[in-house]
Amino acid sequence: MDLYNKYSTIFTCGFQQSIESKKGKSMSISAVGKQSTNNVPLAFNKKGVIINNGASSLIELKSLFEIKDIISCEAFKSELYKDTIEKIKKYDYIVLSGSSKHDAWDKRFEGQKKFIRETNKPIFGVCLGHQIIASAFNQENRVVHRFSDLKREWKEELLRKKSIAINFSFPYLADNFPSLKGRYLRFYHGYYVSSNLSNLRVLQTCKDEKTGEIYALFIQHKSRKVFSTQGHPEYIDREYNDISLGKDLVNAVFLEWFGSSNTLYK
């Protein structure tokens, strides 16, 4: 059985749930605004760990990735670095959380960036994690910027864009999972990543019509298992109530990483 046929029921089932929710057939009020993971399993049974960069959505991230273990970003300090690397060896992949408290250029993340550059572990970055990945592989240039550097009226308009439609395909998945396209991912932050990046493939960009600035919504390393998004797959957009999008997106990335017929990383 090929990978698409093996796992398509997971994606199709999840997408159908979101459609039925929109029609009012199975919508749970308590699920709105929170990640629902009960009916959409992860495609692969892999053990992950979350690097907590100060996330307010830690519970939702743990639920989305079905992860129990957390490591603080402070664990990458020079005096703790070797012990932290040793602890991480037992995990199959790593999730870098977001945060509203820090920016990617904070010195506390230097050890984490060093680890990102040196490890061969698969890494999934969210929000600030996305920004840390971008800056880790682009040391020569400042690729993470604040929206507050823009004119106030432009910043306010940008921040009102609370969700953006996914509009890309993974190279390996091609068009096998079109249900990801056109679905709205939660998108709300005060920083953005430039689309001009070294070592990273920009999968989708967003252009602000007033400023002309083009920033990266999704990125993927050109030769390593590193993927990140500026959006928040751990949350459900209240307007669209797509309760399975987060799991579907993670499953798509996992299929890239762990699928036995994987071609992108061979």
From TrEMBL:
InterPro entries xrefs: Class_I_gatase-like, GATASE
Domain (Glutamine amidotransferase) ranges: 83-241
Coiled coil: none
Domain of life, source organism: Bacteria
Entry protein name: Glutamine amidotransferase domain-containing protein
Source organism: Candidatus Neptunichlamydia vexilliferae
